[in-house]
Amino acid sequence: MVFKAFIKNKQANKAIALFNEIQNPNDVHMLLLFNSCAQLKTKEALDLVKKISKQIPKSFYSNRHLLTSLLDALMKCGDVAHAEALFYSSKDKVLPMYGAMMKGYVENNLAQKTIELFNELKNPAGMNTVLLNQMKLDDIQSSIPIYLIAIKAVAQIGDYSKAQSIVKQIPDCLLAENQIRSALIDLWGKVGSVDEAKLIFDKIRQPNTIEYTTMVNSYGLNGMGMQAIALFHQIPRELLHEATYVCALNACSHSGLVDEARLIFKNIEMKTMRIYSTMIDCLSRASAFEQAQELIDEYERNHSPYSTMYS
C-alpha cells in the first residue's frame, strides 16, 4: 500500500497529501493519517489531527488501534490535555493505549505522570483487571514496551528509590530480555548506581552494541572515565557504533581524559557530526580552544556549519 510506504520512508507529507485525495476515508486511512501526523510533530499536523478526529464516525471509536494511533499523534504533537481527555473518556482501554500515553508523557517531559499511569495499570482493582492479566505470563511479550517506558521515565527523573520500586515489579522472565537489560543498565547509571548496572552487564555472555554502549555511558555519567575507556577498548570493532564513540568521548570529556579522547577520535574511520561535536566539547572543556577551532574548521571544509559546535 502506497500510504504505508510513505510512512515507512518518513515521507509523512506525501502520505497526508494522499489522504486528502480520498473522498470517504475509512478507519484504516485515518489511522495511517494519525501515524503520519505523529511523524511530523508540527502545529499544522496537530491541527489536522484535531480536525479529522472531530469527523470520526462514532462506530470507528470501537477500533482500539485507531484510538491508540490518535492518542500517539496528539501526544507527539504536544497536545497532552486533549490526549488525556480522550484517554480517560475511553471505557474499554487496551494495553497499547496505556503505552501511547506513557510514552507521550516521557516525550513531553512529564515522566512522573508516566509512573502514575504505570502504577494505575498495575493496580488490579476494577477495570484494570483485564489489563493486568495482559501483563502476566500469558501475554508477557506485549507488556515489554510498558516496562521499557516505565524504566525510561524513572531514568528521566533520576530517582533511586523509584528505580528500585520499578525494578521490583518487572517479572523475572523479562530480566533476560535484551531491551530490558539495556534499559536497566541505563537506568542504574542515571540514578548513580553503577554497581547495579555492572551486575546486569556482567551477566551478559555476549553483549551487543547497545549493551556495551549503555554501560560505557553509565560509567561516563558517573565520572568513571577510566572504567569507561577500559570497557570501550574491549568492544569488538564490528560492534562499534556512532553512539559508542560519542559515549566514550563524553566519558573522557567529563573526566578530563583529553589524551584518551584524542586517541579514540584519531582511530575513528567514519567521523560524523555528532562525533566531531563531542570531541570539540571535550577539547573546549579542557580549554584547548585552538584545537577545538581546528576541528571545527576541518569539519566545515567538507560540511555545512552546524550550530551545536559553537554552543
UniProtKB/TrEMBL annotation:
<dbReference type="Pfam" id="PF01535">
    <property type="entry name" value="PPR"/>
</dbReference>
<dbReference type="InterPro" id="IPR002885">
    <property type="entry name" value="PPR_rpt"/>
</dbReference>
<protein>
    <recommendedName>
        <fullName>Pentatricopeptide repeat-containing protein</fullName>
    </recommendedName>
</protein>
<dbReference type="InterPro" id="IPR011990">
    <property type="entry name" value="TPR-like_helical_dom_sf"/>
</dbReference>
<dbReference type="InterPro" id="IPR050421">
    <property type="entry name" value="PPR"/>
</dbReference>
